[in-house]
Specification:
Helix content is about 50%, strand content about 15%. By secondary structure, it is of the alpha/beta class. A hairpin with a 5-residue loop joins strand 4 and strand 5. Helix 3 crosses helix 5 and helix 7 crosses helix 8. The longest helix has about 90 residues. The N terminus is likely disordered.
């Protein structure tokens, strides 16, 4: 039933290892519906979500997917859905490590889901903490992301012991800024979690503040990300890569004056790395199975081609033999006709000779 509902609506897809890469390329926050196969309530929820995904206000902002809740229990927990929550269950899979769970007491209906997403897009939705056996860490004394003011410039940017990242953006009228700022927040949080104290992440909103115009920043195109390295504050480096946490963190590591180490996949928490490797493992297994099926199919096709070629050769040989037999029969028939003609002529000659003898008498 689930596949029949989704088959004709490509705005919502099954989240599997094979479609994971497609969702990653979109770079959007994902609304993920966990369902139970052959369950009327899950079918109804999926039908409602199919209507939501076609609403124009979410186009290019939210991707929509569904997954088997029994199979992906770990993913449900990672998104903040409490253990024991009945299916269907709905949550946002965002790019900033925050969890946003749809109220399980609310039915999955177009109007309710629409309100849930609008509150998220406008920053009014409060994150939901993922269920954990350990209490969350105490908040740091200072925020991971410094909100810059003009008066803070010398104290923050000019600190010779710190490599300082500065994001220049606008909170209004800049759709690209909204997306980049969410990823940048994740970068700041990860540097804080990794206890890399030599990197300061700051940002300034040009709608409410400004920065000293000393010829060092050219921010005609927003968002713009700069690094004021510890040993050279006069010539900031501008980031020109993808607006994703991992490439930003690797760029900072490469260009920072105060060197530091990063773990593999630095943008992911330990729990997220476990989930990532599990998904990659499933994808690799699926690729191997597909390669094995392809190899078996190619082998079968080669066998059929060989069989057809041998049949064709046998057919040609058989035809050649038939042609030879036919030619031999034709030759024999012609010889028989010629021999019969000779016999006939001999009989005629004998008859003539007898007639001549009779007249002589």
């Amino acid at each position: 039933m689930l596949r029949s509902l989704v088959g004709s609506e490509m705005c919502i897809r099954d989240r599997t290892p094979s479609t994971y890469a497609d969702f990653e390329k979109q770079g959007l926050s994902m609304l993920l519906l966990f369902v139970k196969p052959n369950d009327p309530a899950s079918d109804q929820a999926l039908s409602e979500l199919r209507k939501v995904c076609k609403l124009p206000e979410f186009r290019s902002l939210i991707s929509f997917a569904y997954a088997d809740g029994d199979k992906y229990k770990d993913k449900m927990a990672g998104l903040g859905i409490r253990h024991g929550t009945s299916l269907p269950a709905l949550a946002l899979n965002t790019k900033d490590d925050n969890n946003y769970v749809y109220d399980p007491s609310q039915p999955v209906e177009v109007s309710s889901v629409q309100k849930f997403l609008m509150e998220f897009l406008h920053g009014r939705l409060r994150p939901t903490a993922a269920e954990s056996a350990t209490p969350p860490p105490a908040p740091p004394d200072e925020p991971a992301l410094v909100q810059m003011r003009y008066s803070m410039w010398n104290r923050v940017i000019e600190d010779p012991t710190k490599d300082v990242l500065l994001l220049v953006y606008r909170s209004r009228g800049c759709p690209n800024c909204d997306t980049f700022e969410r990823y940048y927040s994740a970068v700041a949080r990860r540097f804080r979690e990794l206890e890399i104290g030599t990197v300061v992440t700051a940002q300034v909103d040009l709608e409410s503040d400004t920065v000293p115009q000393v010829g060092r920043l050219a921010h005609n195109a927003l968002p713009a990300l700069y690094m004021f390295s510890a040993e050279d504050k006069l010539l900031p480096k501008e980031y020109a890569g993808k607006g994703k946490p991992r490439p930003i963190m690797l760029w900072v590591q490469q260009n920072a004056d105060v060197k530091f180490d990063l773990p593999p996949l630095p943008h992911l928490t330990p729990e997220q790395r476990v989930e990532y490797h599990r998904q990659v493992g499933e994808l690799e297994t699926q690729k191997k199975e597909q390669a094995a099926r392809k190899q078996a199919l190619e082998k079968e096709m080669d066998s059929k081609r060989t069989e057809n070629r041998e049949k064709a050769e046998l057919t040609a040989k058989h035809k050649m033999n038939l042609d030879r037999e036919l030619a031999e029969k034709q030759r024999r028939a012609e010889e028989e006709v010629a021999l019969e003609q000779e016999r006939y002529e001999l009989r005629v000659q004998e008859r003539r000779e007898k007639d001549a003898e009779f007249h002589d008498l």
